[in-house]
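Go through the following before class.
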Amino acid sequence: MELLSSPSSVFPGNALLLVRRRLCGWKKIHTRFGLVVGPLRSTCYHKNLRNGSGCFSKRRDISISCSAGVDKDSYVPSNEKPTDSRVIYAVAPAMGHNQESHPESHLRVPSIVNALEKMELTPKFRGSAIMELREFKPASIDDIASVHTRNYVTGLEKAMDRASEQGIIFIEGSGPTYATANTFEDSLIAAGAGISLVDSVVEASKLSQNQPIGFALIRPPGHHAIPKGPMGFCVFGNVAIAARYAQRVHGLKRIFIIDFDVHHGNGTNDAFYEDPDIFFLSTHQDGSYPGTGKIDQIGQGDGEGTTLNLPLPGGSGDIAMRTVFDEVIVPCAQSFKPDIILVSAGYDAHVLDPLASLQFTTGTYYMLASNIQQLAKDLCGGRCVFFLEGGYNLDSLSHSVVDSFRAFLGEPSLALEFDNPAILYEEPLTKVKRAIEKVKHLHTL
């Protein structure tokens, strides 16, 4: 889908102007959540305005601060270094990208941040062990265009005028994806948060053996967004953009992407379907939205064999996922030998989530976080970044992310406090075993 193709005469600095118009010269504090957005640095803007070029045409020179606290100036640089930390996270809640009663709402990231604060998993309580990346830069247009067509990107930017007039628009042909006047800028910020975490994790890996893991607490999510447009609540492919950035800027050639969202990450799948250097592995509920991700879709051309799709039958839960991890994910990653692992971390396979019918628990997500972290340590110097995707029950979402943080820190799971085993039912393990055996045969595991 080509969205509102813009004429070539559109000023290439419009993306920067849009962000500046909403953020420059003022601070916006969401009083309940405590979101702080600081004024943008102006050096790049003025220079490029004079030159007639867009600030986003190259690596970003403006910064956004999205913080869970308002007790200090968000533009005071932290003296902490990534090498001192075990977890680095960035928060980009997209508070202006919201539709009333929509499951992908502006309450999702704040619920996680509030839970982290309540469970004392923030720098305030843990010091340098946990670092919030408070100052990061929006993704550039070139960053986005490494995955998406420029017609889509400029078309979405132009559509913001219509969204500003109408309050909210639905993007035709993309599934239930809405846009507000803030969607374009919020999506650049979300992608930028992920990119900046890649920077931090890669830099730390050069300086310390105690490698921190990154977590982008961002929205809108990204794994459904296809190269030509948005889809399924997703605007820009955050993980895919970060993968291309890691290759282009850091020279990390081989990227291993794990997607455990309950829905197939069709956008990421399509972006790398013919690429031998990016391995995309997705577990998802069989028959769920968007209906893609069949087990025999393994890539094509040079990329044949570097896409693995494992649809799980409804009712699959902790036992199924533990088996998948041991018998499928680990041998795939070991064979591929990645330079970094990126994770599309969707928490909508939780048994309490309203949009699907798998039976993951908080304990399942603790296991995944712990095991993926160890896999990264074993294979690629610990370089690993998680990206928030789905998860629409605010309690199960926030509890699962909390337990993921505890896994990263090597602390015991709190799943027994959060989960109710009485609501679980027997998993379809015979069907699960059949699916695993088929995918192992297809990929000679």
About this structure: Residues 58 and 171 are 28 Å apart (CA to CA). The two ends are 36 Å apart (CA to CA).
